[in-house]
Design goal:
It is built from 18 helices and 14 strands. It has 569 residues and is of the alpha/beta class. The strands form four sheets. An eight-stranded mixed β-sheet has the order 7-8-6-5-9-12-11-13, sandwiched between helices. The longest helix has 36 residues, at 55-90.
């Protein structure tokens, strides 16, 4: 396939269509000569007809033609100006941004984000070079101009049009074979940090009033601060504090057969989790045969979810449900199912020590785009090693904290304690002064990651904040990111939330699905039954007379009325 494939989802803000026209050679000159001949003949005929006309009539026709020409010229001028205005708006950095730039104008209920950004000439050159696919070592393609380089978002709907909630927007994906060919053959360079190891402690002791757990090891505030001092070699707390290796006597334990499989090498994995029987398994769609063959899909579940699946005959001894390979977790470290879900979400690099790339999706999401295409679009094309979507509406931690309290996501005192702690550390409300950082609040249900030391450190320290404070990882994301970015030249690709909604479909949690009424069955309308003509011989109809005719017509009216009533219902 040549060119990029356009990912479109129902409810998008618009469609982009490639209009390709080809004119066969040789037919143009011939058609033009025919047009000239026919126009010359028509002109001569018109002149012959005009000769006998009176002079006044001729002047009237001339004025009329002149006025028509003026009207046509004016219409063309208006059309050209309108096209220029539309084109100018469509390429304005405050409305649309080229794929790969850092514009922060997501679709939010038909409105625009308040912040804006003007890229410098250096950033523009860097952005243009980003679309030049390099000849990676071992890649099977030559350098070529990226098919999605000219892709732009369609304009959002007018503000007068009512939009209910966030919607997906178009995304330009490479065909699967080209996406596979663009995968780098070697890992990205990790800035400063090259060797990352993890703290082990068989008897962790809580020494400070802040939270924490035996699973996380209760790192002190001094150890926490030291972990943000990036060096070439580091040892940090990163869960699994006990035991010889993750999943073996550490809490969050796996069966021996699963442990052996989790140690295997894979270029790419897709992972998700359901704890507390909280969600319904969503099967991925539109997955290529190459991905089904080479990319394993792992679903982590606790014993409660496993028991439910077995009782419903969803899970058998094969440990497979569709594309998902089920991994049962024993001895979960937390009583809160949502906090248990943060372990595989943020610590996949510890569970899968021999994996290059991972895509994490929450259990309520359904993946509907091939993993190769997702990685090419959000990591490889951007020269990034970590990608996450920003929140579709909120981009300030303090606003996010208030929204969490209003929605009852966590107890208010714990949220206030966490935010006050970050405020003392220097966290400020988001403003344009933070650009090119486009948001402080992620929509953290999808993580796209290359497993290298710097990204592994980031998710370790992010997990430590979730372990120490509340499980609302949106609140702790920005403080960890900003502390690392002040030490090393590293950044995160925070893409639009409408782009995330293009490749995953969000479902409801199980408790909400069970509360919903069953769907109303569709009403099948059947045509009225044909009259019974058995036993009657076809032929000329004999008209009735007198009483027979009146009674017959009365019966006919009653039958017609009953048929109308039946059709109405």
């Amino acid at each position: 396939m040549n060119g990029g494939s356009l990912g479109l989802r129902t409810g998008s803000y618009g469609l982009l269509q490639n209009i390709n026209g080809a004119i066969a050679g040789g037919g143009i000159s011939k058609s033009l000569s025919n047009v000239r001949k026919s126009s010359t003949k028509m002109l001569s005929v018109i002149r012959e007809k005009e000769r006998p006309l009176p002079n006044a009539w001729y002047r009237y026709m001339g004025c009329r033609k002149f006025s028509m020409l003026l009207l046509i010229a004016f219409a063309l001028l208006v059309f050209a100006l309108g096209s220029f205005v539309v084109n100018k708006d469509s390429t304005s950095p405050n409305v649309l941004q080229r794929i790969g730039t850092l514009g922060i104008v997501p679709y939010v209920n038909g409105g625009h984000h308040e912040a804006s950004q003007i890229l410098g000439e250096k950033d523009k050159k860097k952005d243009e070079n980003r679309f030049q696919i390099p000849a990676f070592k071992g890649a099977s393609v030559l350098p070529f101009r990226h098919p999605c380089v000219n892709f732009t978002f369609p304009p959002p709907p007018p503000p007068t049009r009512r939009r209910l909630g966030p919607r997906p927007c178009p995304v330009c994906y490479l065909p699967v074979d080209q996406a596979i060919a663009s995968m780098p053959s070697s890992s990205s360079a990790s800035p400063v940090l090259h060797n990352l190891t993890y703290v082990l402690n068989e008897n962790p002791i809580k020494s400070e009033p802040h939270g924490g757990s035996d699973f996380g090891g209760y790192p002190s505030l001094k150890q926490r601060n030291d972990s943000f001092d990036i060096k070439e070699s580091m040892a940090v707390h990163c869960g699994f504090i006990k035991g010889s290796k993750p999943g073996h006597g550490t809490g969050f334990d796996f069966d021996e057969s699963d442990l052996a499989e989790l140690q295997q090498f894979h270029d790419i994995i897709v992972a998700s989790a359901i704890f507390g029987n909280y969600d319904v398994i969503q099967q991925p769609h539109n997955i290529s045969e190459e991905a089904k063959k080479n990319i394993p899909f792992y679903m982590f579940v606790d014993e409660e979810t496993e028991a439910f699946m077995k009782n419903r005959s969803i899970l058998s001894s094969s440990k497979r449900v569709g594309l998902w390979r089920i991994v049962v977790v024993h001895n979960v470290p937390y009583s809160d199912a949502r906090r248990n879900g943060k372990v595989p979400k943020l610590l996949l690099h510890r569970i899968f020590p021999n994996v290059r790339y991972s895509i994490w999706i929450d259990g309520k999401l359904q993946l509907v785009v091939d993993p190769y295409q997702v990685l090419e679009r959000f990591l490889w094309r951007q020269n990034a090693n970590f990608a996450i979507s920003r929140h579709y509406r909120r981009f300030d931690v303090f606003v996010e904290a208030e929204a969490n309290k209003a929605a009852g996501k966590y107890d208010n005192s714990s949220i206030d304690e966490q935010v006050d702690f970050y405020k003392k550390e220097g966290l400020t409300p988001y403003s344009e002064a933070k650009l090119p950082i486009t948001s402080d609040v992620p929509e953290g249900c999808v993580l796209i990651k290359e497993h290298i030391p710097i990204t592994n450190l980031f998710t370790c320290l992010w997990f430590n904040e979730v372990d120490r404070f509340t499980s609302r990882d949106q609140l702790s994301f920005a403080i960890v990111r900003d502390k690392i970015m002040t030490k090393v030249d590293w950044s995160i690709n925070m893409f639009l939330d409408c782009e995330r909604r293009n490749f995953v479909i969000q479902s409801y949690h199980r408790d909400l699905l069970e509360q919903m009424p069953p769907p109303v069955p569709a009403v099948v309308r059947r045509p009225p039954a044909l009259p019974n003509t058995r036993g009657k011989t076809p032929g000329k109809r004999i008209p009735r007379r007198g009483r027979d005719r009146r009674s017959g017509s009365s019966r006919h009216r009653k039958a017609a009325a009953s048929n109308r009533d039946r059709n109405f219902f």
